[in-house]
Amino acid sequence: MKLPCIVGVNRGPTVDETPSPRFLGTHLHPDNIPSSFYAKKTKMLVIFRNPKDTLVSFYHFSNNNPVLPVQSWEYFYSHFLSGDVPWGSYFDHALAWEKRIDDPNVMIVTYEELKQDLSEGVRQISSFFGFSLTEAQVHQIAEGSTFTAMKESAANSHGTMGNVIFRKGEVGDWRNHFTPEQSQEMDEAFNKHLAGTRLGAKLNYQLHCQ
Fold first, then answer.
1. pLDDT computed for residue 12 by the predictor
2. Is residue 62 within 8 Å of residue 183, measured between CB atoms?
3. Which of 10, 78, 98, 152 could anchor a disulfide with 199, C-beta 3.0 to 4.6 Å?
4. Contacts 24+ apart (CB under 8 A), 33-42
């Protein structure tokens, strides 16, 4: 399977040089994923987070990233809501995956679900990919996949970007950033785009964002 790759100095193996089965992480819009992925029935695990915490996480990632300009909260909030940010509109992205929610090769899980019961998430994800795990293996994977565990090992896994990528990992940190007016505006955007959809229901917006 040929995949695009970024070539640089001292690069590691490209995806097509790695033996199957292989893992590829991406933020691509589903319409921009190569058609060969769908033709070859590639398994796709899609992780969504509620839009308010996504905005907060994206804001801090951008401002803590040394290669990106620092932006005010108000500026970043307005651009996120209008979709004028890298990778585009959160809601357009969500609606595109909503169209693929019945695809047997697509599994959509939420960050909040994994935070609530990570072991069950490991079981469901491993089953989706066709792996049969013992309970001991589930426990071991879940233990190493908590936000705390990943943050503690971030220097080894992500180098100097570790503290940029792993900040708090909390559900509901948006309450420390949004004004009441901004919260209401996001509520209206969610209702306009995702109310009544299955992905919208899966995000459990009323519990996590109101």
1. 57
2. no
3. 98
4. 34/3, 34/4, 36/1, 36/2, 38/105, 40/1, 41/105, 42/105
- Tens-binned pLDDT, residue by residue, of the chain (210 aa): 333 333 334 455 676 788 888 888 999 999 999 999 999 999 999 999 999 999 999 999 999 998 888 999 999 999 999 999 999 999 999 999 999 999 999 999 999 999 999 999 999 999 999 999 999 999 999 999 998 888 888 878 887 787 778 788 999 999 999 999 999 999 999 999 999 999 999 999 999 999
Q: What is the DSSP letter of 10?
A: T
Non-local (6+) Cβ contacts of 33 within 8 A are 26, 44
Q: How far apart are CA 129 and CA 139, in angstroms?
A: 18
Q: How far is CA 164 from CA 57, 189, 209, in A?
A: 10, 28, 24
List the structure tokens of 164.
Answer: 């940029």
How far apart CA 164 and CA 20 sit, in angstroms, is 31
| Domains defined for the chain, CATH in brackets | 47-209 (3.40.50.300)
Task: Tell me if residue 27 is catalytic.
Answer: yes
Q: In this structure, what token pair is assigned to residue 128?
A: 């989706």
How far lies 34's CA from each of 2, 17, 41, 76, 104, in Å?
Answer: 10, 18, 12, 30, 18
**CA–CA separation, 205 and 194 (whole Å):** 10
The residue to which tokens 């040089």 are assigned:
17
The active-site residue, picked from 27, 93, 158, 208, is 27
